[in-house]
Protein 1
Amino acid sequence: MNGARRAPLSSRSLHSSPVHMASSIVLFGPPGAGKGTQAGNIVEMTGKPQVSTGDMLRAALAAGTSLGVEAKGFMEAGQLVPDSIIIGLIEERLKEADAENGVLFDGFPRTIAQAEALSQIAEVSVVIAIEVPDGRIVERICGRYTCGACAAVYHDTFNPTANPGVCDQCGHAEMKRRADDNEDTVRTRLSAYHTQTAPLADWYRQRDIFVAVNGDQDIAKVGSEIAAVL
Ligand SMILES: [Zn+2]
């Protein structure tokens, strides 16, 4: 976000009504940490809708809203959509009826500048980070394979086929592994995640709303740790 765009953003935010300040949740988690499952649980528990900036952007482009048209210009020029537009989309989303009691932010913010801008338009009451050691993520992701015929999902360690290489479900004997499920690719993605998240975690820690949850345990236990936080 550049200075020129920041000024109108904060002056506009001053006029936000208290309705938009209902408490929201931010969820962080590395790839393979089960963030999607836990996001679903949080939505169910709190009734707060899950908000993804990617989805909002796609919807705005499809609907041709003024922010959508503005965003399209940047995308067609091969540029990143500026934070001011993303924040504008969030601000509009927060005015919708289902966001009355706040939302669950997934995949946002990604930078401190975004966290600062978000703090102007939404009250974030808690930031939950699902933490799983990198080695465990590598083990989870790299062990996955699926049946080439029926797409049944297996895992080398946690859920192997009864007969090696033969699908339990349909008997097909050809298993597939995704090319990007290899250790180097996963470790690269994880280090990008840590680089991006660490400063944000510190930023939220300073504001006493950061909570780390142990994601290296049974899905239901992760869910109850999160429920305890909420
Ligand atoms: Zn199969």
Protein 2
Amino acid sequence: MSVRISPDKCIACTTCVVHCPVARVTPKFLGPRMIGPAYERFRLLGLAEDESLTYCANCKNCDITCPQGVPVSSINMLARAEHCRKHGAGLRDWVLAHGELQAKLLQLIPAGLKNFGMLNPVTRKVLDMLGIDRRAPLPPFAPKTFRQLARKLEQPSLPRKVVFFPGCYVDVYDPQTGLDMIWAFNRAGYEVITPEKFGCCGLPMIANGFWKDSRRQAKRNLAELARWREQGIPVVTGCPSCALMFRADLPEFFPDLVEKYGMGVLEDAQDFLLECVERDELPLDAAPAAARDLRIIYHAPCHLRAQGNGLPGLRLLRHLKGVTALNADAGCCGISGSYGFKKEKYDIAQEIGAELFHTVRESGAAFAASECGTCRVQIRHGSGKTALHPVSILRMRLEGRQPSGSQG
Ligand code: SF4
Ligand code: SF4
């Protein structure tokens, strides 16, 4: 691993420290300035790593707020990868980093049996000993993956095409959100292609220190993206973390691959649909007359805010007739992918998300909405309210159904 990022742009202003959700709730983490640019200088001299590095959640709030544009989270993830290369990573972190691979290995086992095997109290106790907190809201496997369902789905033949990158959360745990996405694109006049060659974006691997595995995913995904780019077909995703990984992390971590295959851009599916609405290609004011007024509270994932692209999911919801969509604007939910599942981090994650959970509970909203799958899991766990992807709410609304509350 040869990539390093210079810490020299840091002027020690401590803005990032004020906005770091982890440093706010625990003294176990020395904070972004210390663990990022300050410690990087020691690392470059070959001095020992500080163990509190493992407490960085890779939420990117430091990057969002740094006036100098220091990519603190990337400095941290590179340092973590180097630490894991030298000292090895544990089994718990391997399990949390490779959800897609596990789903593939277990694909012949029926979902009911898998979920019983993974989520019964005895297994949870074993997982707890392994370092996955027994209270953590691990999502159950879906009976069929999104890709299996999409393969059998009959779409109308439409002249305009769009490629959909589901991300592993939608593929393995929440295929309904992917199907809702296809429905919305079909309605906007696009046939949706779901290539088999795309895999996990590699972010869970980076966050857990598995550099080589993330690089392998980057190579595979960038090659596939280049194929669609050459055909002039846009590639979209509903997951902000996948989009951010391609937009910001891959060029920083794997510049040689980006040079070889070109910049891989996943367009924000919500933004894409919003443009369709603004061109009158996707009418959203056509909710059946019987649909009751609906109050929704929306949570913006940190990885969406880090892209500086506004809140297209919230804007989509606000186009829906009879829907009042509030912006929770209550900071990070705490989960950061699988961070909040870890035994030593579960309580930290709950404390980080406490303000959001309170805001959601007190909002009087029927449902919460967020683009990120694990944010939805965490919101439901912390607030007791069902959380759905904005596009799922859009579909239910336009079909005249009330959200069923079954999705994570
Ligand atoms: S990525 Fe998040 S947890 Fe890590 S240092 Fe930055 S703000 Fe703190
Ligand atoms: S990383 Fe950025 S925000 Fe943090 S102390 Fe340095 S200059 Fe300030």
Protein 3
Amino acid sequence: MEKDKLEFNSLADAILPWYYSHRRVLPWRMDQDPYHIWVSEIMLQQTRVEAVKGYYKRFMEALPTVADLANASEERLTKLWEGLGYYTRVRNLHKAAQVIMQKHQGVFPEKYEHVLALPGVGPYTAGAICSIAFNQKTPAVDGNVLRLWSRLTNDARSVDLPAFRKNATQALEAIYPRDAGDFTQALMELGATVCGPDRMPDCTNCPCASFCKAHRAGTAQELPVRLPKKQRRIEEKTVFVLWAKDLYAMTKRPEKGLLAGMWQFPNTEGFLSPTEAANYLQKQNIQVKNIIKQVERTHIFTHIQWNMRCYYLEVSGILPSFHWRTLEQIRQDEALPTAFRIFLPDKK
Ligand code: SF4
């Protein structure tokens, strides 16, 4: 590590000027408010910057302070989050805001340990908040920074190994400059753009080219090394979009597990043929008036893939076993995850 420290002493000198002239204008980079940084970092987990921009704007307009977030209803929060996926994130934001109100008198904590103790906050997010909002020397090592570090050091160990992350964090800690928040953001920005994942690293335009070991060794394109990904589990489902008199049948998902507590169209396990679907509905006492159409769609979660067949059916009678909503209500009020939203009829 001492060797890395000596070799990478110039890292801040190289990337800070580059960052000041190349950084992207992003809505959450307008100030150092920890609330803004926290919400944006949680939204950015597993989600692209471009996709987050609109959500971030709407969220901040609706809930401009930690207190607003703490007092918001769960329904309102899931609606604001609808389509972003990974809904545990917004539930943890809610819980953490309540912790801030109760334990920290509504003031965002500054100590790294206190930030790390908030629900849904891991070492990366705590590092980002403490360095960007409070200028502390706390590295925020995400996938972009791991990739960048593996190339700068020409380290062919897998970046998925906890030891790799630990070494990178310690090595960065040792070379943090006074402008800690800007350094954190410069590392993230360089890793997300010039030394990016989906294309060849743009070494000719990189401020680190003179001391980057992978560039010198010609191995940049071979890095980072990743552990093989686990195969996604495939699940088959049959979904029913049932309507009667302009009302659509909805149910709530269980309070635990995937998409916990969110709305859904009625569905069952397995890929039911039209005859099997008719038998299934009959057993549920659902009288079908008209079969409109059948479509098939796939929705991919991180570890699971749902292959779905959906039947659109007009039914006679409003069964009390479902919640019945107009299309307008579903669109405006209910948090319907993308896995089911893809079946929402176009009809107004
Ligand atoms: S020189 Fe190339 S490989 Fe090295 S950090 Fe810059 S872009 Fe990445």
